[in-house]
Amino acid sequence: MLVGALLLFAGGPALAEGPTFEFAVTVLHATPEGSVGKGAGRYDQLLRRQVRYEGLRVVKTKQARVAAHQIGSLKLPDGDTFRFRPIDPEGPGALVAIEVGSTQGDFRLPKGKPLILGGSEWNGGRLVVVLELED
Question: Could you tell me which of 60, 87, 58, 57 has the C-alpha nearest to residue 72?
Answer without folding.
Answer: 87
